[in-house]
Amino acid sequence: MKSNLVTLTDSKSVAAEAYRTLRTNIQFSSYDQEVRVITVTSSRPAEGKSTVACNMAITFAENGKKVLLVDTDLRRPTVHKKFKLPNSLGIVNLIMNMEMLDEVVHHNVTEGLDIITSGVIPPNPSELLGSRKFQRFVDEMRDQYDTIILDSPPLLAVTDAQVLTTLSDGTVVVAQHGVTKKDEISQAKDLLEKVKGNILGVVLSQIPPEDNGYYYYYSYEDKKTAAAKNARRSKK
């Protein structure tokens, strides 16, 4: 069983539909520049950003995109655990030797989705992610994939997410419902703006089921009400 991957295990759920809505919002977030490389981060650890990154990658692949998910959280990697993949080789190995691409890519983990895990934890994550080799890797992957999602470390803990943001077309910030503080979100926003990052938006994770259900029920009823009003107007 794949961990927290509701887009695979419960594709008709409210949560899975929320990820599809997120995908659509990202696709239409910019009229001038296509958003193809996306960094997913959070202000602090354990807010659900890896779960969001993984489910986002699945929904983009389901939409017919060729997708690459890269675990760039080189301090606390979790993508391999969620997909139950080996992690002896990964992006760290690839940065050191670009000829290892075929060895580190897990092809078609789900249809249309390739994954590169972190590999061994290095002593210098920020330097590796800020290297010219990693930038070259991202540039080369743009030619091979429609969408690239980078699962990044938290913003307030280390500088890695800021580095990755400079290589991305947009950044999604994940906040945990009832836990993340407003000033933490504000600090995360300031850090991204300092590197001129394109903030696509904030995703609220781990919303209680009763709140989630109410939100979607309200939206559905609101649409029905609007449709009824329009129908009445057309008869006049």
Automatic annotation (TrEMBL):
Catalytic activity: L-tyrosyl-[protein] + ATP = O-phospho-L-tyrosyl-[protein] + ADP + H(+)
Domain AAA: start-end pairs: 36-195
Enzyme Commission identifier(s): 2.7.10.2
Highest taxon, organism lineage: Bacteria
Keyword terms: ATP-binding, Kinase, Nucleotide-binding, Transferase, Tyrosine-protein kinase
Pfam family, one: AAA_31
GO molecular-function terms, A-Z: ATP binding; identical protein binding; non-membrane spanning protein tyrosine kinase activity
GO CC, alphabetical: plasma membrane
PANTHER family per UniProt: FERRIC ENTEROBACTIN TRANSPORT PROTEIN FEPE, TYROSINE-PROTEIN KINASE
UniProt similarity note: Belongs to the CpsD/CapB family.
Official protein name in the record: non-specific protein-tyrosine kinase
Organism: Proteiniclasticum ruminis
